[in-house]
């Protein structure tokens, strides 16, 4: 039997998770062909969900955009995955039909899927591209459909297109293509703002509904979709929203690589009308820096060949081109950014009398309870990024200890010592705790520096009773340098917690305001009951580095101290 002190030794093994040696980053592009809806009379609105397996559990990593009324979608959204040589990284691609009424998956139809391992990557000299080969096949039931999932392993080829099977029969028409490309090492991104004027009118009773697609032309002459703008309805002089794309995705770091741009007139049936096209390079687009503009004639080759007086089908204008440095989590930490860790522990009556061995708060002389396991596993990691290693610790309705900051061992000792003195009660209100940490994070924004990022760890056993206020608090906190980690202790129904996570759609306040960014990670402890502290810590903290980077990069805030190696990663002027 382990003594209580041994849990510190176990948790110590989790140190360095954030610094795990990522060998490289891989961008995954997805397209589907011939997918069909459950309703044969309509076309699906497909979306691809990327999930990653960790300790037997599947967690959503990201999802593509939803493409309306389309059976052959080519998604512009990229998945970026860290590749670790020493780990078996299992990925799952799920295709769902997301209706226009919602973005969640509860009512969506599952259209097929593919599982793979992000395995051996051998970088070719010219084509640093990787692809997929079949390993194993099996069937499963989901939403009244039975599909075959294909296990694949990424090797040093380029891409794989594979049909999905239904009910174990021969391949049908539905297929998915995954192209994986190793990032070149340049993490910079470019911000582009396009507009157009005098585009051809393709509609009889209204004006065209234009959108713009940008394709990168690869060395083998194939074309890869880089970005698709939104549709501007009924407008021949559209101004599309500013968008950001990585330099690697745009041109693979080659400023002279050809880019093909196509303007379409959107149609609700998915059969969009071609307006015109033009070619450019990133080098040419950089002419739109510092307030200048770059313009291209939008040409329809058929019109040009047939019409003698044909000039163009409109003018496309690049109004802005800005290059932004994409800093990493390590850049901010090495620049002096401190992780301010706060703990909040649930002392509601639903946990049971701490003196009773059935209580979730029961203190066993040899075996730590679930609260302590979660607290130590996560706290040991976070304290390594805080210079004084001292944390504010709160209880729902009582602070422990009053007006005092303690280290992780101090939190454990305070937790154990306060339990006999407390009378557990309810309800489970967590909005006040989020608001309190958010107040400190809000004060930090006044510095306009990457000095402190706040992580709130909430350990709770039950359903939140102030859900509306909690949603409001999270939406507000999403604008601040702050993340919220919720660990569900016990066997309660945590379905509401999943909604706060934002993985099943976009979290909104009661007034309808969406979160600016996903800052909540929920993990039920029961999924890691028999796993190591490292497994739990890795799961709950997995999203934090990206959340830190997303916040500061989104605000244009650089690390306080620029490291020497950064100059070698900056795009040459």
TrEMBL record:
GO annotations of cellular component type: plasma membrane
Please tell me whether the keyword Repeat is annotated for this protein.
yes
Q: Which residues form the C2 domain?
A: 3-131, 170-297
PROSITE patterns documented for this protein: C2 (PS50004)
Q: Which GO terms describe its biological process?
A: cellular response to calcium ion
Q: Which GO terms describe its molecular function?
A: calcium-dependent phospholipid binding
Q: Which SMART domains match?
A: C2, VWA
Q: Which family does it belong to?
A: Belongs to the copine family.
Q: What is the protein named?
A: Copine 4
Q: Which organism is it from?
A: Cyanoderma ruficeps
Upper lineage: Eukaryota, Metazoa, Chordata, Craniata, Vertebrata
């Amino acid at each position: 039997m382990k003594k209580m002190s041994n849990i510190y030794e176990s948790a110590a093994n989790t140190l360095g998770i954030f610094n795990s040696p990522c060998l490289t980053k891989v961008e995954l592009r997805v397209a589907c062909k011939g997918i069909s809806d459950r309703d044969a009379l309509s076309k699906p609105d497909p979306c691809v969900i990327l999930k990653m397996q960790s300790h037997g559990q599947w967690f959503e990593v990201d999802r593509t955009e939803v493409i309306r009324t389309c059976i052959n979608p080519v998604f512009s959204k990229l998945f970026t995955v860290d590749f670790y040589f020493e780990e078996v990284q299992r990925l799952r691609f799920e295709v769902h039909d997301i209706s226009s009424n919602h973005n969640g998956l509860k009512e969506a139809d599952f259209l097929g899927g593919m599982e793979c391992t992000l395995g051996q990557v051998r970088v070719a000299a010219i084509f640093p591209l990787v692809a997929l080969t079949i390993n194993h096949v099996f069937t499963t039931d989901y939403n009244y459909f039975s599909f075959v999932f294909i296990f694949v392993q990424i090797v040093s080829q380029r891409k794989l297109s594979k049909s999905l099977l239904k009910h174990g029969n021969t391949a049908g028409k539905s297929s998915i293509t995954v192209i994986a490309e190793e990032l070149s090492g340049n993490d910079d991104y470019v911000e582009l703002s396009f507009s157009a004027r005098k585009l051809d009118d393709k509609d009889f009773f209204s004006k065209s509904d234009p959108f713009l697609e940008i394709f990168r032309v690869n060395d083998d002459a194939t074309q890869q979709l880089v970005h698709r703008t939104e549709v501007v309805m009924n407008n021949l002089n559209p101004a599309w929203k500013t968008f950001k794309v990585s330099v690697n995705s745009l041109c693979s770091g080659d400023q002279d690589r050809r880019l093909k741009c196509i303007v379409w007139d959107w149609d609700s049936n998915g059969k969009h009308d071609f307006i015109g096209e033009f070619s450019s390079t990133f080098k040419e687009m950089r002419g739109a820096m510092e307030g200048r503009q770059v313009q291209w004639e939008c040409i329809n080759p058929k019109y040009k060949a047939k019409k003698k007086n044909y000039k163009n089908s409109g003018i496309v204008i690049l109004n802005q081109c800005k290059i932004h440095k994409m800093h990493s989590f390590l850049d901010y930490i090495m620049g002096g950014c401190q992780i301010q860790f706060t703990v909040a522990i649930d002392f509601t009556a639903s946990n049971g009398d701490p003196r009773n061995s059935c209580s979730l708060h029961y203190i066993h002389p040899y075996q730590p309870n679930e609260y302590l396991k979660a607290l130590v596993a996560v706290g040991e990691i976070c304290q390594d990024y805080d210079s004084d290693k001292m944390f504010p610790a709160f209880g729902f309705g009582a602070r422990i200890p009053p007006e005092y900051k303690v280290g992780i061992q101090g939190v454990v000792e305070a937790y154990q010592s306060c339990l006999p003195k407390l009378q557990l009660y309810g309800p489970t209100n967590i909005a006040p705790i989020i608001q309190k940490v958010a107040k400190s994070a809000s004060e930090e924004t006044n510095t306009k520096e990457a000095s402190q990022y706040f992580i709130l760890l909430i350990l709770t056993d039950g359903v939140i009773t102030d859900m509306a206020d909690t949603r409001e608090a999270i939406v507000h906190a999403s604008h601040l340098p702050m993340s919220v980690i919720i660990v569900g202790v016990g066997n309660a129904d945590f379905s509401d917690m999943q909604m706060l996570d934002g993985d099943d759609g976009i979290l909104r306040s009661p007034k309808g305001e969406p979160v600016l960014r996903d800052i909540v990670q929920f993990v039920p402890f029961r999924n890691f009951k028999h796993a190591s502290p490292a497994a739990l810590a890795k799961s709950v903290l997995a999203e934090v580095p990206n959340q830190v980077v997303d916040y500061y990069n989104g605000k244009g805030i650089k690390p306080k101290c620029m490291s020497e190696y950064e100059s070698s990663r900056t795009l040459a002027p």
